[in-house]
Design goal:
The chain is an all-alpha fold. It contains 14 helices and two strands, in the order ααββαααααααααααα.
Length: 250
């Protein structure tokens, strides 16, 4: 009988430890506040994995948190740390991509995203610009860095991952951050006028459309792009004209 009681006591002790030890899958705070999960782990547990020594584990954690999305908002500070401090470029790129899916909580990471716009890895820069584009006016502190990114010759690449270049993504983020003002209109207008490809023209037309009525001064350049562009460019130009409050036809 005593041996049975000892066994039961030992089981209870082990169960209690499982509830109290952070690395346990039954860790009580995780069980009580797990919320949405990825591969059976909560955002809180994946956030702890961001501190692992192996880069592959940190990258997997960033991917998992991005998959959870907005419900993983508590991980934003740790993802921001990975974004700026991690020596592994793939981890930094994955952290930036995860932040694209966490607006508005990702506004806490704006300083880190600003710094990431000058990262040595193009994909990190592209994902950082994408994350900022999701924050609209909350990304306004990043306007100077977005302007620099938009003007940098190093950012004419799409990093082999998107159909837009880093410059074009920075332009979209800049437009959304300054929407309702004319602050970025001269730069966006010049970019549209100097665009060499249909895809670039579409990006800058979309950026001007995001700005809204304050972009009316760009009407001549929008109409010129429409006349000289493909069907897709013409359609995007019409949308831009409508968004800024001008008739499609002159």
């Amino acid at each position: 009988m005593k041996s049975v009681l000892r066994l039961m006591f030992a089981i209870l002790v082990l169960a209690a430890l499982a509830l109290l030890l952070p690395f346990s899958p039954l860790y009580l705070p995780d069980v009580l506040t797990s919320g949405p999960q990825y591969e059976g782990k909560s955002a809180r547990r994946w956030t702890r994995v961001l501190n692992e020594s192996e880069a592959k584990d940190r990258k997997a954690a960033a991917f998992a948190l991005g998959s959870i999305g907005k419900d993983a908002g508590e991980s934003v500070p740790e993802l921001a740390r990975i974004l700026t401090d991690d020596p592994d470029r793939e981890c930094r790129a994955e952290a930036a991509l995860a932040l694209t899916k966490m607006a508005p909580a990702s506004k806490e990471a704006v300083p880190a995203l600003m710094k990431a716009l000058t990262d040595s890895e193009p994909l990190v820069r592209l994902n950082a610009a994408l994350a900022l584009s999701k924050l609209d006016a909350d990304a306004r502190p990043a306007v100077p860095e977005l302007i620099t990114a938009m003007q940098s010759p190093e950012n004419t690449t799409n990093a082999g991952a998107f159909h837009v270049t880093i410059q074009e993504m920075a332009a979209l983020a800049l437009a959304r951050a300054t929407a309702g003002t004319a602050d970025a209109v001269p730069l966006l207008t010049a970019a549209l006028e100097g665009a060499k490809t249909g895809d670039a023209r579409i990006s800058y037309l979309r950026a001007l459309a995001y700005v809204g009525p304050e972009a009316r001064t760009a009407a001549p350049q929008i109409r010129a792009a429409k006349k000289a562009g493909s069907k897709a460019v013409k359609e995007e130009a019409d949308i831009a004209l409508q968004k800024i409050g001008l008739p499609i036809e002159e």
